[in-house]
Structure formats: C-alpha cells, structure tokens
Specification:
The protein has helices at residues 35-45, 60-69, 79-86, 94-107, 118-149, 163-171, 178-207, 210-215, 223-233, 244-248, 273-288, 295-307, 309-330, 338-342; strands at residues 3-9, 13-20, 25-32, 49-55, 74-77, 112-113, 253-258, 261-267. It is α/β, with parallel strands linked by helices.
Length: 343
C-alpha cells in the first residue's frame, strides 16, 4: 500500500502525517527535528512511503539531503504554493499543516524545489554575511548622520573612505557629541575591516571558479554578481530555456488576466532577492560606468529613451541574467561584437 508523508518542520520538533493511496490518514505524530530520529519514526509509521514532502525553509536543504541519504524519498516543495493550498483550512496548526502537506504529496499538487549542494550553500553564506555586514554599516552611517543633523550638522555627500574624517570635523563644533558618535564610528570601522576581509575571500572563490571567471567577462558583472547568480541557480541545466531564468529570479512582470481584464504590473520579485539585487547593480554599472560599448549597453540605452532609466535597468538586469545562463551552459565567454562572434 502506497503511503505519503507530510513534514511540518520547525526548529525544535517536526510534525508528521501519513496518508494512504486514497488520502485517508494512517498516522500522525511529532518528533525532534533530527534526521535520524525522523527516519526512525517514519520507518515505524510509513514503511512503504512513496513520497515525503517538506516546505522550503531554513532547514529544508539540510534535512532533505539527510533524509534522502537515509533512503527516504524526500523532496522540498514551494512554500508559497503550499500556503495557497493550505489556507483554505479553518484552523492553522502544525498538525494540520503536516496533514495538508501529506495530501499535497498524495494529489501531486505541488512544485518541487531543487535542494542546493553543500558547497553552493557555503559560498552563499559568504555572500549573505557580506550583505548583512554592509547593511549594518549603512545603518550606523545613517544613525550618525541623524545624530549630527539634530544639532544642525550635515555630513553631506562624502566617500566611504572619507566618512569618518568628515564626521570628526563636524563634531569639533559640538564636543559633547564625541561620546555618542565615537562608539558608532568604532563599530563602523570594525565592520569595514570585516567587509574588506570577506570581499577578499569572495574574490578568491570567484578566481578559483572557471564558471565564475567566464561570467565575469560580461561587462558590469563582477565577482559578487557572478557568485550570486551561480548560488541562486546552482544547476543551470534545470532550465531548458535561458529566458526562463529572468522569471525564476523575479525580473519579469506579473500578469493578471480574467475575462476582459488583462493587466501587466511590476516585476514579481519572486525567487532569490540577493541575485536580483546584484543583477540590478550590474545593470546600473553597465549603463553608467562601463565606457566600452556593447550590444546589451546599446539596447538598454535605447530603452532608457523610451521607458526611462529605472525600467531600463530592470530590463537590462533580466537580459544579463539570460546572457549569464547561456554563457554558463554553453561554456563560452561574452562576445563584444558580431564580428568577434563570427571569428
């Protein structure tokens, strides 16, 4: 008899539910969120498990790989799609969610999500750590600006390297501010040093990756953008068409069509936010900083005149995602001109 299992995972414990081939509940329970304990529990309650599903989350990749290694057919499903199916239930509990996931496994109404490889997750951890530190540095700079502004002192536009010197120049007018501003600047200084160290490590990872070096031949694309795209996609062969990558990263417009209404809105912003942000920054760099002319830059420059710079940068970010995926799959490098492509 076929059995289907739903796992509602939380930090300390996981609720499970087992249903049979007709959708009838066979067993319920909960166990500590540990692969060996969960595998033992499912061996007792679902020895003929055909499918074990768990939602995307912070522990999903680790748990799915461990359960698969234990011989269980575990897959990760899209949490947004699962939420849409489970929201019709009147009472939301962990036990009900586990049952709902088991029913999704039984009906097949789910979207499987690829689990990233451990080495990809380690590289991504470096990128996320840098993102967190740069965000904290920005918050501290804004806090210092706000403190000084309250005393009529404006920092103004200043480079990152000159920020601290500018602040100390202004604090001379209000010496009592030194006790408040000094600790903030000390923390900012430490954050800057850690960011530099992280960027050096990320650069070393990028230089050591043949794929990353090829992606960095695209104008505007640096190690951060290349690695963020690589860690977001992980396996490029998941996409049969490069054009699908733009939608996967949330860079295509949402559409709502019903009867006579057909509406296209802003980009969906689904998928990996870090990769989407870095692609937007790469597009901005290509348009404003890269002097050498290229086909993507010419295309975006024409688009700026039609729809404005912001929409053009978003469209260029989507085009860069498509180009990067095609280079990745083909094993080629960026071609600057049609003449170079024919050579």
């Amino acid at each position: 008899m076929e059995q289907y299992v739903g796992l509602d995972v939380s930090l300390k414990e996981t609720h499970f539910c087992v249903v049979d081939g007709t959708g009838a509940v066979l067993a319920r329970g909960r166990e500590a969120t540990h692969p060996e304990l969960l595998a033992a529990a499912l061996e007792r309650h679902a020895p003929a498990a055909r499918l074990v599903v768990l939602e995307t989350g912070g522990q999903s990749s680790w748990l799915q790989r461990a359960l698969s290694a234990a011989g269980l057919p575990a897959v990760i499903v899209d949490a947004r799609r699962a939420k849409a199916a489970l929201s019709c239930r009147m009472n939301k509990t962990d036990a009900n969610d586990a049952e709902g996931l088991a029913q999704l496994a039984y009906t097949g109404w789910y979207r499987e999500v690829a689990a990233k490889r451990p080495e990809t997750r380690l590289t991504r951890a470096l990128l996320l750590a840098r993102q967190q530190l740069t965000g904290q540095r920005r918050d501290i700079e804004n806090q210092v600006r706000a403190l000084l502004r309250g005393f009529g002192l404006a920092v103004g536009s200043v480079s990152r390297a000159g920020f601290e010197a500018r602040v100390w120049t202004l604090v001379v007018a209000e010496p009592l501010l030194e006790d408040a501003v000094g600790p903030l600047l000390a923390v900012r200084r430490a954050l800057c040093a850690e960011v530099v160290d992280l960027e050096a490590r990320i650069g070393a990872v990028a230089r050591g990756s043949e794929v990353c070096r090829r992606l960095m031949t695209v104008p505007g694309v640096g190690p951060m953008t290349a690695l963020s795209v690589i860690t977001a996609i992980d396996d490029p062969h998941r996409f049969s068409r490069s054009a699908s990558v733009g939608a996967y990263l949330g860079l295509t417009p949402k559409r709502r069509q019903s009867s006579a209404m057909d509406w296209s809105g802003r980009i969906s912003k689904q998928g990996d936010a870090l990769a989407r942000h870095m692609l937007y920054e790469a597009a901005n760099s290509l348009l404003s900083r890269v002097a050498r002319w290229s086909a993507p830059k010419a295309w975006a420059a024409r688009l700026v005149r039609r729809v404005g710079p912001k929409k053009a940068r978003v469209a260029l970010a989507r085009k860069l995602a498509v180009i990067l995926h095609r280079i990745w799959v083909d094993g080629t490098e960026f071609r600057w001109s049609k003449q170079a492509a024919a050579a």
